[in-house]
Amino acid sequence: MTRNKMFIKIAYDKGYRIECNKVYSAVSKRYLQPTLCTRGYYKFSVYHKEHGASNVWMHTLLAYQKFGDTFMQNGIMARHLDGNKLNNTYDNIGMGTNSDNQMDIPENARKQRGAEGRQKGATITRKFTDVEMETIRDEHACGSSYKDLMKR
Q1: Whose CA, among 5, 107, 128, 145, lies 20 to 30 Å from 76?
Q2: Where in the chain are the domains?
Q3: How far is CA 59 from the centre of its chain?
Q4: From CA 46, how far away is CA 19, in angstroms rounded?
């Protein structure tokens, strides 16, 4: 179980609940003011004496409330069915795989993200220039292994 999912269970066991798009704490017997994280999701902090503190996203706790231990399986994540990250209402939360989650994003937004990723990848994560890649391909075609080429 991931640390995030472990803290979802800890929060649930401590009595935290999502009600009407708000976080209720049974510990303090009041509604909490969640924080908006940089990724656009509401979160709140939970402390555990053995594991320290960690943030829990509202939508993930609500998914656990709704689906129970099925939500804790590896590869399963919470989904905002309407695409609105701030809408943490019961009917708007589903669960699925990362692929399902990506398909919830409107097609034009997915294409825009892909185009932005390609632009970033060309300037940030690229290791070789076009000329270097052409040389590597030519030498590989002539019998050199990629492993030997990378040692140079």
Answers
A1: 107
A2: 3-104, 127-151
A3: 11
A4: 17
Beta bridge partners of 96: 77
Do residues 104 and 128 lie in contact, with contact meaning Cβ atoms separated by under 8 Å? no
Q: What is the dihedral of CA 77, 108, 116, 81, to 10 degrees?
A: -20
53 and 46 in contact (C-beta within 8 Å)? yes
| Neighbouring-strand partners of residue 55 | 45
**Pick from 86, 82, 109: which is nearest to 37 by CA?**
86
**Strand, helix or coil at 80?**
strand
CATH number for the segment(s) 3-104: 3.90.75.20
User: Would you say 50 and 13 are in contact if contact means Cβ atoms under 8 Å apart?
Assistant: no
Contact between residue 31 and residue 24 where contact means Cβ atoms under 8 Å apart: yes
Q: How do residues 75-132 score in pLDDT, each as one tens digit?
A: 999 999 888 899 999 999 999 999 998 888 788 888 887 777 666 555 556 677 888 8
Which tokens in the block code for residue 32? 């909490």
**Contacts of residue 95, Cβ cutoff 8 Å, sequence gap at least 6:** 63, 66, 67, 70, 71, 76, 77, 78, 79
% the chain with pLDDT above 90: 58
Contact between residue 102 and residue 110 where contact means Cβ atoms under 8 Å apart: yes
